[in-house]
Amino acid sequence: MAERGDLEAAAAAGVITTEQVAPLHDFLGARQAARAAQPVPEGEETLRFIRNFHDVFLAIGIVILAAGVIALIFSIMSESGRMAGGDMLIGAAVAFALAAGGMWGLGEYFARRRRLFLPAIAICCSFALFAALSAAMLTGAAFGTDGGPMNDWPARLAFFVAAAAGCAAAALFYARYRLPFALGLAGGLSVWSLLSFVFLAAPHAAGDLFLWIWLFGGIGLFVAGVWFDMRDPERKTRFSDNGFWLHLAAAPLILTGVLGLISSLFTPGRALTPGSSWELIARAAQSDQAAVPQAIATLLVVAALGFVSLLINRRALIVSALITTGIAIGVLMEAMNLGGGALLAGTLIALGGLVLILGAGWGSARRALLARVKPDGIWARVFPPETVAE
Predict the structure, then answer these.
(1) Closest CA to 306 of 315, 293, 296
(2) What distance in Å separates the CA atoms of residue 360 and residue 364, rounded to the nearest whole number?
(3) CB-CB contact of 162 with 135 (8 Å)
(4) CA atoms within 13 A on the CB side of 383
């Protein structure tokens, strides 16, 4: 915007009259204010967790500080020569508990007082990690063996306690600071807690249940995300942010469960594991005949997820599926006997093209899909109408 001094200089030079200086200055000021206050188009997934590079700078500092604390504690434990059981584990647990308390103090300043969301995310992750490590150390000290490694049952117990403590810490962080990321983290860790509990209670039967827990846990988080989205279909408030992080946590869980179950169909009798989808790479390398149909099934699952993403207007679901989509495309190209360089280039080009096509036609595709959905009522909250012209 032109400063008032510039307008007065223009009047002195005869470009405008003196009487025009004040109204022109007011007009330009109003135009600038209107542009600054222009709202984000309705329905867009606005990222409100970063404002400027200062937030990035602070978040980096918090991450480095947390990494330094972890390195210091484990360094002291290593030098002591007593890595399991006894006083050293108790000392480490206390140290991690104090570190968690320090992160809580940082949360009071950065998350509650200054409302800096990206640093608050780093603090939340560190707080949950320190709480989990402290709980695991205490469990190890209580049930481990002095001078030797813990047996299988205490190890499984420590894993469960750590997951539950991390989940509780994230939930507590959300309850105190209302940080949407903390809700998504608590949701994801709740599924991990359930997995670790099943592994603790029935380790021999856990393999048959893991993928189902991934799948239904992800569906549960997805439903919770839709519930928050229904409270804010225009994507303008904290409810939308809650839904965003829940969807981001739900998508990889759903994909892992579904793709693992698909993998079990092509290899009957094999134990189900959470890493089944990643076996596509190994299958392609071994020229496994099941690799291509499994890759095609993977792409169909991702396409279904993309369809749901369009309906509920959530790109976060698609982002979580990009890696798996790339693997499936790579397997199909491997079946075409492409070389290593051509395979990598073809996979990246195909994946990038899909993202660009979907991104460019997002609004048009949504309007076509939702043409028969009423613009009001509960269905309009579940599937918000596309009102922004491209």
Answers:
(1) 315
(2) 9
(3) yes
(4) 16
Nearest-10 crossing angle of helices 117-143, 180-201: 20
Chain segment 240-291, per-residue pLDDT in tens: 889 989 998 998 888 878 877 777 776 655 544 444 444 544 454 444 556 6
Q: How far apart are CA 36 and CA 27, in angstroms?
A: 14
Give the CA angle between residues 353, 350, 247 to the nearest 5°: 70
Are 227 and 219 a contacting pair, CB within 8 Å? no
String of b and e for 61-79 (b: at least 16 CB within 10 Å)?
Answer: ebeebbeebbeebeeebee
Amino acid at 277: S
Q: Is the pLDDT of residue 340 over 70?
A: no
Q: Are 333 and 346 in contact (CB under 8 A)?
A: yes
Report d(CA 276, CA 298) in Å as an integer: 12
Length of the chain: 390
Structure-token pair, residue 65: 């500080």
- Give residue 153's identity as a one-letter amino acid code: W
Instruction: Calculate the alpha carbon distances from 352 to 64, 79, 185, 301, 356 in Å.
Output: 33, 49, 28, 18, 6
Could you tell me if 234 and 384 are in contact, meaning their C-beta atoms sit under 8 angstroms apart? yes
- Spatial contact of 256 and 210, defined as CB atoms under 8 Å apart: no
Q: How far apart are CA 390 and CA 387, in angstroms?
A: 9
Phi, psi (rounded to 5 degrees) for 45: -85, 85
In the block, which residue shows the tokens 């606005």?
Answer: 46
With CA atoms as reference, report the closest residue to 173 among 158, 164, 155, 186.
Answer: 186
Rounded to whole angstroms, how far apart are CA atoms 130 and 112?
A: 20
Of the pLDDT bands very low, low, confident and very high (cuts 50, 70, 90), residue 3 is low
**What's the rounded Cα separation, in Å, for the pair 386 and 44?**
10
What is the pTM (predicted TM-score) of this model?
A: 0.75
Residue type, 327: I
